[in-house]
Amino acid sequence: MPDGWFKTHCGRMDQGGCGLLVKVEAGRVVQVKGDPQARLSSGYVCPKGLNLPRRLDQPGRLTRPLRRRGSTLTPISWDDALDEISQRLGEIRDKHGARTVSFCQGMPKGLEHMSLIRLANTFGSPNVVGSQNVCHMPRELSGVHTCGFYPVVDYDQPSSAILVFGSNPTSTNEEGLISVQILRQLKAGARLIVIDPQRTPLAERAEVWLRLRPGSECALSLSLISTVIEEGLFDRDFTADFCHGFDELAERAARFSPEATAEVTWLEPAQVRRAARLYASTRPAALHWGNGVEHSVHNFDTCRALVCLMALTGNLDAPGGNIDAGQPPILSLRDFVRADLAPAKYKEMISFSAGLLPRFMVVPPPLWRRAILEGQPYPVRAAYVQTANPVLSYSDSRATVAALEALEFLVVSDLVMTPTAALADLVLPAATQFEFDDVGHYGLGHGFILARPKLVEPPGQCWPDLQIHNQLARRLGLGQDWFEDYHGLLENLLSPSGLSYAQFAEQGMLRAEPGFFKYRRKGFRTPSRKVELALSRGREWGFDPLPDFKGLPFANDPEYPLILNSAKVKTFLGSSDRGVASLRRLRPRPSVRVHPRTAAELGLREGDPVKIETRAGSVIQYVKVFDGIDPRVVVAEPGWWFPEREGDWRGANLNLLTQSQPLSKAFGTPNLRALPCRLGPVGKEEAEDGRPG
Questions:
Q1: Which of 247, 293, 316, 525 ranks highest by number of CB atoms within 10 Å?
Q2: pTM summary value
Q3: Nearest-CA neighbor of 114 among 338, 310, 303?
């Protein structure tokens, strides 16, 4: 590969898609900086992106396939690895059926996410497992069933007001919604409302900050609707012409006035009404919702209520509001993943018997574990895992480890020896960003895809996941649905555009043609052709047609008097990169935010190790005294493990504190936040060991 500066987009350290300028010297990436001409980010880049070069050469990088023999993993060739995987998966398929093989992954990081679904479909397994039950899909499918599309913020057009709910974009740039976009709108005069249990940088700038009680998101959403309807702030023409179920929603929401929900939300009714008036009467207004609204059993009701709020105020598919972003001229997701080969997939999935929301095509981890450990609704015997670390990222880590250990065959593709990879029968060394040609943001509903071209060779024998899929499929006898080389996947995806991958890489981005108010010509893509404030098929599916709030995720627990919340940080993406020294210097250990009053009552000081306990377990994190939360709330960091402690995942991992019951009916989501907890002292031996006794 030549030396010089090259343009690309970030993708493996975050999902924001920031434009990057990358310097290559002697076959190595030596510097990364923001691209000021990048449409999405305008030169912004976060600490993760700046440290991408150190991700490539981090200690412990896997460079050869490894096979387990007893307790030891020893190097083997790619030919031997692919032969063993194809043989073992083929044998399990032939003996027990393809559905007993599962394909697991984390959040979408690139095209390999969709390529793995293609591998599952061509193999014949309906079971793609992932964390989408707590990330993205509650918002997406709530939109699809309510208005026919996933409503994303339109930051290309001016907004007069922005309501940020459950998102902290100055720390985590989610799915193309990068902090500079919202900051640009604020600079132009947009008014700001922030709903968050902790004071974030945006909350400090907000005209209204609602510091709600964790777990009360659905109640607050219905209170906002109640105010908008009661005070006549809704768009009368839009609701009359393009909404189904207005009267029913009005009757339901009337039960949740700000006064009626104040005890649950901990919010002053006047402040809730002020926020509702500001959002509803300042048009166009955008609702910037984030992952924070998806981490409870109430996520479907919360997300449905928020889509209804967008609709009531006339901000759906309106410039500067929340829009149907469309898709560029590329292959449809259905065609790319070869959904035609799995017409009965939905009814064959592990999760079908649980009665989840229609069109949710990813198996929630708790139901996957149940199939492994209990054989319900049928046994799962093998798993192929990529771009994921389930031991850290799935709720109830102990049950996840038990499930992984119970499998007959486990394959993990990753960069380093994660706690999940350490349990595998075969470990495959994956290439990462800059080391292969990739496409970003495909299938995420934001109306664009991004080029991430190869800039350097991967180390040792690392392969892109796309290449692993393609070669494994050919070994499994599925070559008729695959290609000579993984680049065939890229060219196949781009074929409707008329661009080759090289031409696309030169262009950098493909966007859908903008369009607004499409419903005026076509209606909405719902059974009623209107926004379904009340789902016309809800009862048929076994769901309340209207959003409802049935109580907090957990009852008050005198033995665990505090409420545990969690928040992502700017330094890491999920559980990744704890072994990257330059990032660990920025954040060497996990902190738990504790209000000064609470810290004083418990005798805690800044930097003290403290034991965080729930009824599920305990972990150790370090006190950060912070007055931007309610004294009854503590905010800890997820995703922590320690490669330097022989891969210790027990010391600080928040999913030792979560459980997998109860689950939401719509998405199989457990409660990851608003957990009753207490803080306790850490003994000397525990502090030295780094984990609770």
A1: 316
A2: 0.97
A3: 338
